[in-house]
Amino acid sequence: MSTTAKTNHIGRKISRIRELRGMKQETLAEELGISQQGVSQLENSETVEDEKLERVAKALGVTKEAIENFSEEAVFNYFSNFYDNSTGQVYNNNCTFNPLEKLMEKVEENKKLYERLLEAEREKVAYLEKLVDKK
Question: What confidence score (pLDDT) does residue 8 get?
Answer without folding.
Answer: 83
